[in-house]
Amino acid sequence: MKQSDYTITSLPKDVAVKIASCLEEPDLYSLACCSRDCRELFGSDYLWEPLFKERWPHLYEAALEDPDFKGWRRFYMKQHEKMRDQAASVVKFLKQCSQFESLEVTDYLRAIECLKSMQFGFKDVQMLLFKPKMNVLLNLVGLHFCLDCLQVPALQVVEALQSSKISNRQVCVKWYRGRLFHRMQDEYRSRCVSLEDLVTAKEKEVLWVLGRELLRAKIFILS
């Protein structure tokens, strides 16, 4: 056999599956579309069932009972497309609220509640909101949702930010302290922080402010 004839499908099946199990979902999906042999290997339930269960554990039992179930790969992609459409609705909502220059904390918290009602998981946030090309306000919403609603450990969130290359992106948060209708000029506060610093103990106060609607906080994008 020529060197150019060696492919992953020519390997023993157990070895090929072991290699395939190390790949990310987009790579598996693309490879499964290459040929009939690749579809059999990279589109197998053996690979896609654990991926579905890991990403949406709360939907696993319902998927087993779905009358339209036709394999885990197809079901995974159907659910992914649904989550992608829902993420797009959050993007649209924030655009309407902020034009992506600044954002009131009331709208910020409403976006987080949207993710909660949509039953987003940590993997959904990583794949759909932790993108370098996406507006940093969306990165921030996903970050806060992971910490506050999903209770993802801070170290895992930091690792996700770093792997997505967005950990150093910054926002500026401005807020007022003291009584809502009797505030003085010296009660005004402003802090510029990176996404990674918000997750760590360095900026606990800012993250606390972002969870308090009555403080009238506002988030600005740094140019």
Automatic annotation (TrEMBL):
Gene name in the database record: LOC111298564
Organismal lineage: Eukaryota, Viridiplantae, Streptophyta, Embryophyta, Tracheophyta
Segments forming domain F-box: 5-51
One Pfam family per UniProt: F-box-like
Name of this chain's protein: Uncharacterized protein LOC111298564 isoform X1
GO-annotated biological processes: protein polyubiquitination; SCF-dependent proteasomal ubiquitin-dependent protein catabolic process
InterPro entries assigned: F-box-like_dom_sf (IPR036047), F-box_dom (IPR001810), FBXO4 (IPR039588)
Any one Gene Ontology cellular component term annotated for this protein: SCF ubiquitin ligase complex
Recorded superkingdom: Eukaryota
Native species: Durio zibethinus (Durian)
